[in-house]
Amino acid sequence: MRRFLLRRLATSLLAVLGVVVLVFLLVHLIPGDPVDNMLGEGADARDKAALRACLDLDRPLPVQLGRFLGHIADGTLGTTCHDPLHPKTVARLIGEALPYTVSLAASAMVVALLLALPLGVMAALRPRSKLDAAASGVALAGLSIPSMLLGPLLLFLFYLKLQWFPGPADDAPGLAGLVLPSIMLGTHLMAMLARMTRSSLLEVTGEDYVRTARAKGLPPSIVVVKHALRNALVPVITVAGIQFGSLLAGAVVTEKVFARPGLGTLLLEAISQRDYRVVQGTTLTIAVSYVLVNLLVDVAYGMADPRIRLS
């Protein structure tokens, strides 16, 4: 298992390096001058030259790539050039935004799992019943409702009408400020995981070891939780791991609706400002997060199914 994880880590790091180089080339191929975009076309020529030198845009492309790789090696990911009097490293900007995104993604995953697993298990235990139809209806609704519609609906109901939770205008720390954004972000994922849990559990309940457990006279709860559900979780873990990685990068809509800072907002603003260093550093962070999530998924495979760990 350890050797397998090391091989996966090495392969993933090579893939991350390829993504970094590709993003570096793509952002430099976008038409337009980032200096004019940041300062405006009417800015002083000396200010433009200073900003161009600060961004290394006056150097050849291979030199810029080498300097960016050097910034990765020293951990700064480069320095911003918007405010020469108070420069910040890209790593510091990402470090300030990342906790907001991680907390939002983790809470959304918790909401999704708390809703999806019971729905999927109940639907699988009583297939083609009214309970199965109700669970499938909830999952279908979660897949169908757009996030741009669900967010304002949640704000209208729970913030404006009932006033149970804080809204975008409130600076609410802790769990209270995460409830509505987590529901908005986790609803779509909940629907996918519920359907995956149902189909996987239905497939597992027909296996010989589940029938043997029932023949031994074990309680139904032990048969479902210990023997059936544990083996049915492997595809669910796969989907949850992939989706958690995408949550780290794809929470832009939720962050905008609820006026939350985060990695997605930072990346979107950097793209609009043509800030190459922040775009490259944020993309690198997202790619590394995917690598770490996939490694955790591999470890979770072994915990859920001992046969995978032993092989």
Structural class: mainly alpha
Helix-residue proportion? over 70%
Q: Note the main sheet.
A: none
Secondary-structure element sequence?
HHHHHHHHHHHHHH
- End-to-end separation in angstroms reads 8 Å
In DSSP terms (H or I, runs of 4 or more residues), the helix count works out at 14
Total count of strands: 0
Q: What is the 3D form?
A: globular
CA-based gyration radius: 24 Å
| Beta-strand share of residues | under 5%
Q: What does the average pLDDT come to?
A: 77
Could you name the ranges where pLDDT drops below 50 across 5 or more consecutive residues? none
Describe the structure.
The protein has 311 residues and is an all-alpha fold. The protein contains 14 helices and no strands. Helix 12 (263-273) packs antiparallel against helix 13 (276-304).
Task: Give the key terms.
311 residues; mainly alpha
Question: What's this model, at a glance?
Answer:
The chain is mostly helical and about 300 residues long. The protein has helices at about 1-30, 35-40, 45-55, 60-75, 90-125, 130-145, 145-160, 180-205, 210-215, 220-250, 250-255, 265-275, 275-305, 305-310. It is built from 14 helices and no strands.
Give the topology:
Elements: H1 2-29, H2 34-39, H3 45-54, H4 61-74, H5 90-125, H6 130-144, H7 147-161, H8 179-204, H9 208-215, H10 220-249, H11 252-257, H12 263-273, H13 276-304, H14 306-310
